[in-house]
Amino acid sequence: MRWEGPHRALGRSEVIALGTLLLVATAQRAWNAWTLPPLTGYDAPGHAGYILTIVAEHRLPHPLEGWSTFHPPAYYLLASLVWRLLEPFGPRAIDAGIRAIGSLAGIGAGLVSYLLVRRLGGSPSVAWVAAALVLFVPCAQLAGAMEGNEALAAGLAALALPGLVTLQRNPRRLRAAAASGLFTGLALATKFSALPLLAACAVPFARADADRAALRTAAVMAVAGLLVAGPVYLRNISLTGSLVPMTRDIGPMQKAEANLVLRPRSIRDYLWIDPDCLLRPSIFEPPLGPATLRSRNPAMTNVWGLAYASLWWDTFLVRTSLRLYRDGAHREAYLPILGIVPTAMVVLGFVLAGIDFAHTRAGARDAPLVAMAIVGLAMFIAFTWKSASLAAVKGSYLLALAVPAAVFFARGVAALPDRARSLALAISLAAAIAAAAAFTNHMLISTPAMGALGVAQWKAWAAKLPGSHIAEAMDLLLGAR
After folding, report:
1. Would you tell me how many other CB atoms lie within 10 Å of the CB of residue 340?
2. Which of 81, 95, 305, 478 has a CA-to-CA distance to 47 between 20 and 30 Å?
3. Could you tell me the end-to-end alpha-carbon distance of the chain, in angstroms, rounded to an integer?
């Protein structure tokens, strides 16, 4: 199998296979959006309070006013529109509608993954498995069913990439530049994790043969992005003095972050992967004895181990329960173990793409994806170094790199001998199927509703953030039970 071989239009059987995959993923996400308990997700009450502030007061909150208000507003504006449209149908419809935003964005990322892998020379079977992984890897499923902005930002980032690959081949395509600029701006107006897209946008024009036509195209892209994202970041500077303000160091957010700090970050946390993170992929499981919410897994101080575990499992107990970890049971380890092979293919493909990136001086067709991945990983390292909290090492912070990861997966698989390639595809497909089954609500795991202690804790935090509408949003949405 040759990487970057000739691209051909999708045949009928290929369209049917791709359509079936997307239909299954859509049905599964619709089921999860409707059946999951309300406020299931990272900081879900904080996100809901942000949305309700817009709905109730017809204003954007100050970036440092509430729990999640530092996030750019695009997702919350869209979610507030959904809230208003579905309000007559009750809280359950509101919650499902808000979740549908991330669900649909995740479907879009899966489709773009398939099309880009095929466009860059991957075979239909490899592209299909790569798309299945983007759709069903646990961190993508968790984000797609949350009240939060992660999945939408990743989906918008995905939509910016086809145009950038087109511009890498021909940097004078105005339509591709306008589309990439628009989706980049929307992604940046949704979540700061989309910032690595800026590196991808620069690559097609950072070439010795760039002429006036190419520079004009770059200007079109920049203007399209700035028209969307520029007001968001100007507002941040005006109100806070920072392009990317954060609330994690103030108020009750600081206390919550400190509760997940086991020790100061060390350079050794980045130099290896602790295998115990795979075998016990929860931050709450102690080495011996039953787990409690006060216990912490010391292995999770390892940055890459925790990042990997949260890519392939529900490390922070969003969709699972402490009952899984009773008496030190390790039943949850099967997905992180299955994920080793597809992750290894991504790493192999990334290394090969990086070598081409260097040899061609960023001239390879997938160079924008390589630049985005390099900058994204560098930002992840810098962010986790600055914050020693376990919450800073969520794999979902890398979700904007899902499409580049799919392309690297295909490239890694293509580099294997025939038999090894077939085995790697089979194991990777098994990992995607197992992940889909594990996180289809009520199939293997039934997601528990927020307990009384969780409600009380969030209400206590909300009392310290007057005007955040967190308590009101909880009262309304928890009525959906």
Report:
1. 14
2. 305
3. 52
Q: Which residues contact 271 (CB under 8 A, 6 or more apart)?
A: none
From residue 264, alpha-carbon distances to 19, 223, 285, 389, 391 in Å are 48, 42, 20, 9, 14
Dihedral sign for Cα atoms in the order 269, 271, 273, 274 = negative
Is 277 buried (19+), middle (13-18) or exposed (0-12) by CB count in 10 A?
Answer: buried
Torsion of the alpha carbons at 195, 232, 241 and 394, rounded to the nearest 10: -40
Dihedral class, residue 7 (left if φ above 0, else alpha if ψ from -120 to 50, else beta): beta
The reply to whether 302 falls in a domain is no
The pLDDT tens digits of the residues spanning 385-397 come to 999 999 999 999 9
In a domain, 273, yes or no: no
CB 330 within 8 A of CB 279: yes
User: Dihedrals φ, ψ of 65, to 5°?
Assistant: -85, -35
Say if 125 falls within a structural domain: yes
pLDDT score recorded for residue 480: 47
For 139, the domain range is 32-249+338-480
Residues 278-318 pLDDT 10s: 888 989 876 666 666 678 889 999 999 999 999 999 999 89
CA 123-128-133 angle, to 5 degrees, is: 130
**Per-residue pLDDT, 169:** 94
Look at the chain and report how many structural domains it folds into: 1
Among candidate residues 439, 429, 438, 435, the one with its CA nearest the CA of residue 131:
429
- Residue 68 maps to a domain: yes
Mind listing the pLDDT tens digit for each residue in 105-144? Answer: 999 999 999 999 999 999 999 999 999 999 999 999 999 9
The rounded mean pLDDT for the chain is: 92
